[in-house]
Amino acid sequence: LSRYSAATRNFIPFRKTDTIDNASVDNAGLCSTLFSCWLTKYLWRAYRDNGLTDLPKSSPYDCCDYNVQRLEALWNEEVVRNGLSGASFSRVTWKFIRTRTLIALLITAMSVVFGFVGSAVVMRKMLELIESPDGDVMTGIGWVLVLFLMDGLKVLLQCWAWIMSYRTAQRFKAAFIATMYRKLIRTSNLGNKDSGKVR
């Protein structure tokens, strides 16, 4: 579970800025991640200075070197378990993205639930209240606030799932491209084959 320690720190609602020169995305808390607040200072500086001199530092967990080592380790485990002929890159890919994908699916499911409750339950209660001759104004305001809360949670969870899925895809892309480059570099003699036919 130690490899999830950096990711779980993003679940803390508010975090103090780390004194170590880490990437801002890794130092962001839950609220900063959901609203992408950690990007604000970079966007403001880019707007004010009109330049690209102060770009945010890339996360070491998103870089090629870190992810290609993990992908190759999973591939080697797959080869040891099933042999080279029976090894499946699809299984390795699923193991690489499994945890973050399942969490993103869970968050998306929660978003769908909140959206359904807001549309099917809360809206129905509001319509019933409007049609009722004994409708209370304060009750109506309460249902409006509940609807606002349901829609707000739905949007926030969708945003969170998108951010998590985007970083997952970014990490796999980095690992896959680095693996292909390593494959080409290790190939000493291509002969008459072009790079698209190397296996």
UniProtKB/TrEMBL annotation:
Spans through the membrane: 101-121, 141-163
GO CC annotations, alphabetized: membrane
Molecular function per GO: ATP binding; ATPase-coupled transmembrane transporter activity
Keywords from the UniProt entry: ATP-binding, Membrane, Nucleotide-binding, Transmembrane, Transmembrane helix
Protein name: Abcc12 protein
Naturally occurring in which organism (per UniProt): Fopius arisanus
Gene this protein is translated from: Abcc12
